[in-house]
Amino acid sequence: MQQDPMTQLDDHFHDECGVFGVFDQSEAANLTYLGLYAQQHRGQESAGIVATDGEHFHSHRDMGLVGDVFTPEDIARLKGRSSIGHVRYSTSGESGLRNCQPFSYQYAHGGIAMCHNGNIVNAGALRRELEEAGSIFQSTSDTEVLIHLVARSQGVTTGERVGEAVMRLEGGFSLLVLTETKLLAIRDRHGLRPLSLGKLGNSWVVSSETCAFDLIGAELVRDVAPGEMVVIDGDGLHSYQLFAPDQSRFCVFEYIYFARPDSTIAGTNVYQARYNIGVELAKESPVEADFVMPVPDSGVPPAMGYAAAIGYPFELGMIRNHYVGRTFIEPRQSIRNFGVKLKLNANRALIEGKRVVLVDDSIVRGTTSRKIVEMVRAAGAAEVHLRISSPPTTNSCYYGIDTPESSELMANQMNVEEMRCAIGADSLAFVSLDGLYRAVGRPRCLHCDACFSGDYPVPVEIAPSPQLSLLRYFSRHSK
Amino acid sequence: MQQDPMTQLDDHFHDECGVFGVFDQSEAANLTYLGLYAQQHRGQESAGIVATDGEHFHSHRDMGLVGDVFTPEDIARLKGRSSIGHVRYSTSGESGLRNCQPFSYQYAHGGIAMCHNGNIVNAGALRRELEEAGSIFQSTSDTEVLIHLVARSQGVTTGERVGEAVMRLEGGFSLLVLTETKLLAIRDRHGLRPLSLGKLGNSWVVSSETCAFDLIGAELVRDVAPGEMVVIDGDGLHSYQLFAPDQSRFCVFEYIYFARPDSTIAGTNVYQARYNIGVELAKESPVEADFVMPVPDSGVPPAMGYAAAIGYPFELGMIRNHYVGRTFIEPRQSIRNFGVKLKLNANRALIEGKRVVLVDDSIVRGTTSRKIVEMVRAAGAAEVHLRISSPPTTNSCYYGIDTPESSELMANQMNVEEMRCAIGADSLAFVSLDGLYRAVGRPRCLHCDACFSGDYPVPVEIAPSPQLSLLRYFSRHSK
Amino acid sequence: MQQDPMTQLDDHFHDECGVFGVFDQSEAANLTYLGLYAQQHRGQESAGIVATDGEHFHSHRDMGLVGDVFTPEDIARLKGRSSIGHVRYSTSGESGLRNCQPFSYQYAHGGIAMCHNGNIVNAGALRRELEEAGSIFQSTSDTEVLIHLVARSQGVTTGERVGEAVMRLEGGFSLLVLTETKLLAIRDRHGLRPLSLGKLGNSWVVSSETCAFDLIGAELVRDVAPGEMVVIDGDGLHSYQLFAPDQSRFCVFEYIYFARPDSTIAGTNVYQARYNIGVELAKESPVEADFVMPVPDSGVPPAMGYAAAIGYPFELGMIRNHYVGRTFIEPRQSIRNFGVKLKLNANRALIEGKRVVLVDDSIVRGTTSRKIVEMVRAAGAAEVHLRISSPPTTNSCYYGIDTPESSELMANQMNVEEMRCAIGADSLAFVSLDGLYRAVGRPRCLHCDACFSGDYPVPVEIAPSPQLSLLRYFSRHSK
Amino acid sequence: MQQDPMTQLDDHFHDECGVFGVFDQSEAANLTYLGLYAQQHRGQESAGIVATDGEHFHSHRDMGLVGDVFTPEDIARLKGRSSIGHVRYSTSGESGLRNCQPFSYQYAHGGIAMCHNGNIVNAGALRRELEEAGSIFQSTSDTEVLIHLVARSQGVTTGERVGEAVMRLEGGFSLLVLTETKLLAIRDRHGLRPLSLGKLGNSWVVSSETCAFDLIGAELVRDVAPGEMVVIDGDGLHSYQLFAPDQSRFCVFEYIYFARPDSTIAGTNVYQARYNIGVELAKESPVEADFVMPVPDSGVPPAMGYAAAIGYPFELGMIRNHYVGRTFIEPRQSIRNFGVKLKLNANRALIEGKRVVLVDDSIVRGTTSRKIVEMVRAAGAAEVHLRISSPPTTNSCYYGIDTPESSELMANQMNVEEMRCAIGADSLAFVSLDGLYRAVGRPRCLHCDACFSGDYPVPVEIAPSPQLSLLRYFSRHSK
Asked: B394 and B412 in contact (C-beta within 8 Å)?
């Protein structure tokens, strides 16, 4: 398949997955569908739902967007009052139907289905150990490792077996497990990835983000705690703390880019956090200019905050093509900044002759930033001052985020002045780590900011490889 | 096919089509593809391109979005240095492949292809006349009527034949005609629908909107004048004024909602016009409030103008789901404002306890407005003041815009206070016609505002039916 | 699209179309679907049905097999008590959706739909005349020419208009016309192509072949006569003889290959005619051999006749792969007679060391015959005696049959001994023209055998081009 | 999904699978594709190929026919010089992509892929034992049980591990195993299902049937022996006898119906065996009649044998629709024997007033036989004498053949006279067991004829359920 020129543009870190579960509700699969629909931004490559009617498991998974993967007939076949679902951006190293979650298996204690958001850093070692003991693997997903651990556990209850297995895992993950009679929700010991508990009438729901609760009309009850395993069954909700009360190290990048602005994480609204980052940026890095404009859409809230704090007009100097989609057609002749223009168009009428502050959320490889600055200049800007609502991303992530190798990160190779020069901006500034946490309103110690600081809360198995692809045994196209 | 719950939401007038053409360029079809891609907002139901290599015509048309209708192989087969293309929202009364434009035919003088944006109000009468003379019709499109008139013309040149045919037409339309050796671009005598001329190197391009020129790197030269027929051939561009210099009556709603904000029409940038409408609205209808928030995305520029003019903060109190797509799956149980929530989510963290000014572009049937106000209140708003960046839409359009019957228009049945009450807002105000034209910066007499005023520049054939479906002879599903 | 290696194999003349119609029956579209299904052998490229409920016309047409083109939903939408349908192998020179029949149009007297099987040899001249008079053409189908003639007729009734138009046509065609209230069935003056009338209860049905009547349980009433126009309406069936009682010249090749063996044409059962040809062949060209084997499937009946007449065993020495379908995958390395082997496999166990008589229906280009003989030899045959159940095909057809240029016909370029040599058979013999007509049991003078004799009953417009493609104006891929 | 009326008709026992493998050949996947293509009659529900390049495994599997499942791009991605493939009719009890073979896994010793034709009767017990030991199962396929056994084996070489695993299996199966460096081919101890070894140049190939060798130009070397494990690697072919030289019990029904007529099994050509059965039938059960006609296509060889032996003409009294395919469209009104007529049409011209011997291969439930006899009578037959080229099928099969429950078998519930009466034939006769083996030409003791005799060579785990569905844990639609 040819590569979509659009994807070349999307120079961001990417969250890898979103999960959603519901227990004992009359239209479990339908609500799970909606819970995934609301979290589509967390993964567009595949989607899957497994439901149980207490006796059988029903599963539907495929490559594609939630709205394309499921027909009403598919949902109708997903019978039962409990279900879990998953959207995926791309898993560690491979894709394909073979790796679509949730996975469902039968083992000695009946059926079991699982899905997770995040990355298990010691999955490779565990897998080798399991293979030595005679386990066979069909996918490269960490989830398959986990199900083997559960199946080999001597625990008496599902909770004991899953708990015993999870305690062997290192990494950042939020995990859902479904059996005929139980729904389990587990967060890694540092709570690196989000996971919230809610109620819809008398039924429990779990979701990576709270925006899913809003869509289905559920109420947020609380976040699952770091290291907590919640077991929901016919007797209600039972909480188990699998790990000693370790320090929370929640991923701060969820506030900057991954989460939907209308979600609330650890009590902080994401939109407000982003707006506040703009305010901090204005305080830290003011500049003489005529107006402030965002790179749509993720740059909008910090641009608004920056404009409000500094007292300049906020303008939409770039217009986004709302019908932008997959396109494989490119002109043979050169059109300047063609790829960027498919998605964004600088409004010359507004920009010509003006000094603009351009606000974006992050700089990863820097290629898109350079093109956008060039496009704004081509539209007549007198000066282009770039402001970034995150600190420089100097390090790769190993906890479930799709990031390039560190060596591909512009901030890993250059200092800010070199970056400014390469991008072609008149000035360039990033929010500081301190400014970031002021904006979020919670202490730095509760967060992971390894991508900015290199301070990794969990040691990784093989240091130099980000999101290490433990196994490339089966090829990409495999089904 | 089940109905998409999303479409129920889209309570707007809709532009029916966009056109694009290029003459004598090495990658004509590719550029036409991009010209349509940039104008996807003008029509999402079907897309088509006809190209000519000077000897044969090559055509590809299908239902769907531009990016889905054309594969690289399709584009490669559209050989030739000149081509025209079309996107359609839905034509008068019917849809289906049979009505996809451009149409291409062979007649006594060779091949001819045509497409248009707009509506020919005397198409029914002309069609009856042609049928009496032995013409046969395969579609219900006005374009087919026009091609018959051209084929029956005794004119010597293509220009004469097309000109003679066009002079018999009444209505609002922008028309492109392609022959083996010529590209013609014609605008109705009042210039109701937009059409601009541009240059890409030495090649002429024509487009409904200038945003298409930006994408392919072409320069805007000028708008085609009302009543003008431009003939482009190997000798260059020739202009003919088909009608006595009548008064321009350009559709003002293009500034309010139809056009892309980065397009420029008659010298006025659309984004700035919308921002200015917000400023006028703030002057005309101020209100005590805590902040201003738009209904995304069309409400954003006027909301920014309103906020800047009145001095309140501008906030994104509603978040749009960027991955919203077609979905046919609805929960069986009632979820309040479900349809609206699929697309928009009110951010409780921001809204709770606040008095908000909510800015939207228009109220058509009023059903969505009521749901949105209700959703904002459910998110805790203390007061909701609705401001609309157009005057009340009291009348249907007959010139190529998809509008409900007048009797379905809320503003046709109620006064503003009754509308406020029905919608459930604490206050409701529309921009005045005067304010609208101050914002646009051009005199009212050059525009058509029949949808607000009932002042129709062209008499319509059968008064009571908007966008009259002259013929429903062939059923919807026909191919 | 890559070429299917299978199609290279199919070295036959091909019938171009089949038609079916039903008048005033409660499930008209459904029966038309079945009528086309039974006649799929007459055309596999496209299928279409138009039905009328007396007020509107409903149409569904697409590329593909009948079973793929129509879903139950499609059939349900084809409302009405009368309908006509069409399957097509490929039209004169072009394909594509644009040329799918039936065509439906509106004209001064309401709606009209048409489809035909065959070829109108003066279509080019008529078309040029119509274009001069201002007609426009969207397809290259002869049917479009005819509808224009009907629309321009001054006749008072549909029958008068259609009759007047048909009288201008030269060629071989069977034509169905549907209006809101009538079904017309017309056969050219020589009755070159088949068309039969049947009754299903009180409803009239028409079909290219009688096997369609068998499937739906209808009774054969009679064949439509050469030059007859049958008009079926609420008052019953009315017959008009459009042409002076000219000589019948029915296509004898229908008996040899085109028609289904279980069809009956002019009172002769096709299977029996084929069997009898084998008997005649045995009498005319006996040979010493161990057994007789057919090239499946069309060679089976004459092989049975040959074997029975000469008294040798009849054996299935070649096995046909029943699941053979479209395949684009070929081995890179050479496999002898690969293309033939995908479809047929010679059974060594039976053939080894034996002298075999191999019976096939015709030799067109001769390429496949050579491969088949080679394959039989490779399976160990001691001698291979090829017997052909048609005379040598020396001339192209201009009356609706897909044939190569005469110069590509092996029998046009070589005598029988040269052909035997090229094909590599030990002996080669064709049935004689006399033997053929003895087998069919009807006098030669009532038939067209131009492909064997060069005696064309209707002069063709442009002599040297078989199935002349009057117009290649619109390219293949056009929709 | 609605049910295809065609499938109701197909009242046969069905072979469940076909396998093909090639070792060390430059276009392994392509040849495997062709090997499956030639064996499509053994399974139409799904197809799959796994290839290895010595390092990675590449897999492609999907529901559908071979020609639809694989594109040239798919084949190109299946890199490597060795591969195995599989077609499936339907596995024990379930279908769906989850059960498509070959399966490929990674385990402690690298990658391993497997596929089999047949059924492992003790799979349920082995599965429960493996689950107790901590194994997890994603499918219901017996193959997954086998791979777990291999993974848990302590054997040093692949051969030791696979051999140790296979020795625990009971049932009828032919199995292929692929590793990075080896291809293994194993047949159960009784050799119930076929498996042949061939050579293509210097490369080994294995196939369920020899017709696959013919297509690719390979030579048959020998059948794999009952209980033999063949290991092919870089050093050549190594043979291991896994079981004491037990009695061969090859499935005699392969000769009657399953295998392609051009295949040769145990030295007997299938077509000749079928012809001979007809001869035996004529000797055992002659009858006064005018001619002999088959139920196409499987009834053709025995009908030819019957006709030749008794000296009556052989006629094709029923014509098969060659384009018959999936159709979901049925008439609302009753058409007699509609389902049968979609596929077969009795030729009245031949049958009317005649006494016919009708030859079919088997009677399973008897429903189709009744309809066919009725159709032949409706076409005017004076007498219909039904002759069946197999003994009465009184018992279900447990060794990889899709059969109904014994209680659904007509011959299990009725004697021959009762069957004749229910079917409505004038006489009915089956070939005797002795006649069958005379026709095959090999002693009965080397065969399994449990479906006729109830003499099962391998005891089945749970007696009363044919092709027992050990597990219906995951639902049909699961992916």
From this structure: yes
pLDDT in tens, C331-356: 777 777 787 888 899 999 999 999 99
CB contact, 8 Å: B320 with chain C? no
Contact list, B319 vs chain A (CB under 8 Å): 211, 260-262, 271
pLDDT for B3 beyond 50: no
**Contact at CB, C138 and B479, closer than 8 angstroms:** no
Q: Is A255 on the interface with B (CB under 8 A)?
A: no
Is residue B462 a part of any domain in this protein? no
Neighbours of A167 (CB within 10 A): 13
Within a domain: residue D470?
Answer: no
Omega of the bond leading into B297 within 30 degrees of 0 (cis) = yes
The model's pLDDT over D439-465, given as tens digits with 9 standing for 90+, comes to: 999 999 999 999 999 999 988 754 333
What CATH number does the domain containing B419 carry? 3.40.50.2020
Domain count, chain A: 2
DSSP A316: -
Cα C232 to Cα C22, C24, C367, distances in angstroms: 10, 10, 47
Q: 3-class DSSP state for residue A360?
A: strand
Please name which of A40, A48, A32 lies closest in space to residue A14, comparing C-alpha atoms. A40
Q: What interface predicted TM-score (ipTM) does this complex get?
A: 0.88
Residue among B75, B217, B333 whose CB faces A27 most closely:
B333
Q: What is the pTM of this model?
A: 0.86
Distance, in Å, from the CA atom of D281 to the CA atom of D429, rounded to the nearest integer, reads 8
pLDDT at D183 over 70: yes
Residues of B annotated catalytic, as ranges: 17
Q: Is the model more confident about D13 or about C268?
A: C268
Decide: helix, strand or coil at residue B262. Answer: coil
Of B68, B261, B333, the CB nearest to A347: B261
Count of helix runs (H) and strand runs (E) in chain D: 18, 25
What are the angstrom distances between the C-alpha of C128 and each of B151, B338, D124?
A: 13, 60, 76
d(CA A386, CA A328): 30
User: Which spans in B379-429 are helix H?
Assistant: 410-413, 416-423
What per-residue string of b and e applies to C106-139 under the rule 16 or more CB within 10 Å gives b?
bbbbbbbbbbbbbbbbbbbbbbebbbeebbbbbb
Q: Of A363-367, B127-131, B403-407, D358-362, where does mean pLDDT reach its minimum?
A: B403-407
Examine the domain organization and report whether A320 and A230 are in the same domain.
no
Residues counted in chain A: 479
Chain A positions in Cβ-Cβ contact with residue B212 (cut-off 8 Å): none
The secondary structure of residue C323, as a DSSP letter, is T
Query: Are the beta carbons of B108 and B86 closer than 8 angstroms?
Result: no
**Structure tokens belonging to residue B350:** 């921001």
Quick one: closest CA in A to D55, which residue? A473
Same domain, B286 and B427: yes
Question: What whole-number distance in Å separates Cα of residue A373 and Cα of residue A351?
Answer: 12
B353: tokens are 């306890």
First to last CA, chain D: 16
Q: Would the CB atoms of C323 and D68 count as touching at under 8 Å? A: no
Q: Is the sign of the CA dihedral A37, A40, A42, A45 positive or negative?
A: positive
Q: What is the largest CA-CA distance in chain C?
A: 73
Average pLDDT value over all residues in chain C: 89
Say if residue C426's pLDDT is above 70.
yes
- Contact (CB<8Å) B107/C137: yes
Nearest chain B CA: its distance from C278 CA (Å): 46
Prior bond to D261 cis, omega within 30?
Answer: no
Positive or negative, the CA dihedral B340, B341, B342, B344 is: positive
Where in the sequence is the domain holding B188, given as residue range(s)? 12-249
| pLDDT value for C425 | 98
Give Cα separations from B256 to B271, B278, B317, B361 (angstroms): 9, 11, 22, 7
C476 found inside a domain: no
Q: Mean pLDDT lowest for which of A169-183, A291-305, B332-346?
A: B332-346
